[in-house]
Amino acid sequence: MPRAGRPAGRGQRRVSPTARRQRRAACLFLAPACLMVAIYVVWPVLSTIRLSFYNWDGMTDATFVGLANYIELFHAPTFYTALKNNVIWLALFLLAPPMGLAIALYLNQAVAGIRIVKSLFFAPFVLSGVVVGLIFSWFYDPTFGLLALVVGHGIPVLGDPRYATLGIIFAALWPQTAYCMILYLTGLTTLSSEQIEAARMEGAKGWSLLWHVVLPQLRPTTFMAIVVTVIGALRSFDLISVMTGGGPFESSTVLAYYMYDQAIKYYRLGYSAAIAVVLFAIMLLYIVYQLRRLLRNER
Question: Where is the ABC transmembrane type-1 domain (predicted)?
């Protein structure tokens, strides 16, 4: 019962039938996407977390072992080798966004033949990881590779534990730089011409114009380029599988390949799931940090 002297329904916002229908329509449009995310993203993540507490070979009944997989993982020397290689991948792979930006600035010109040049820079992105791996395997070959011809003698890049990881990262930077270039080329089309002209009238040019006018407008693009680059560095697998198979002596393995190796070769699906959970946690922490930083800068 409403209180005396106060109209019924006071403090309650009435929702019009039109707004109610719009909300219902929005929910119906979002429902298929939410269902697919729940089935193909949320459920596999939860299933992997659950599987990491079991010992399972994929054929017999799973046995609950608690944190045993994680304890074994944190005591395995290969895990720390893979983690160290992932850090190296992450540090060197972050060269892709600035290199992609530099190429995008060069290609963002209205000159004759620039479309042909763009297609040449775009070509590495459409190549599969297997093709890129084979190309650079031939490039590094110490007997007939192009590197041996340039240097004058053979260098066993992929056969030396000191150089294998660096050689694979160099190969992976080729398509990743092309991808960042595409992102920045798209971002450059959204720049405010009024701000650029006003900055030029104030005397800004060159590095000053790029740093104070262009890059602030490209902040969302830079965020996306960094996130996809970090994810690509942490989930690196195809080039390692093609070029070294994690060798020599597991010196070039990373967490993603270590996870595959344990699951496919040794049928240790629970242990592999524990590796996947650790890798997912590292990705999640980094992405949350970058999102908070982006939102803080936007405010």
Answer: 82-290
- 160 and 224 housed in the same domain: yes
Q: How far apart are CA 30 and CA 240, in angstroms?
A: 38
Tell me: do 31 and 114 sit in the same domain: no
Residues 95-136: pLDDT tens digits?
Answer: 999 999 999 888 887 777 777 877 888 888 888 888 999 999
Same domain, 111 and 146: yes
The full DSSP string for 119-183 is HHHHHHHHS-HHHHHHHHHHHH-TTT-HHHHHHSS---TTTSTTTHHHHHHHHHHHHHHHHHHHH
49 band by pLDDT with thresholds 50, 70 and 90 = very high
Phi and psi dihedrals of 56, rounded to 5?
-145, 135
**Residue 5: Cβ within 10 Å count:** 5
Which residue, among 280, 185, 173, has the nearest Cα to 229 in the 3D structure? Answer: 173
What is d(CA 183, CA 225) in angstroms, rounded to the nearest whole number?
Answer: 7
Positions of E strands within the chain: 54-55, 63-64
Is residue 37 within a helix (H) or strand (E), and if so which, with residue range?
A: helix 17-37
Torsions phi, psi for 156 (to 5 deg): -75, 75
Same domain, 218 and 114: yes
- How far apart CA 164 and CA 160 sit, in angstroms, is 6
Query: Which tens digits make up the pLDDT trace of 257-296?
Result: 999 999 998 999 999 999 999 999 988 888 888 778 877 8
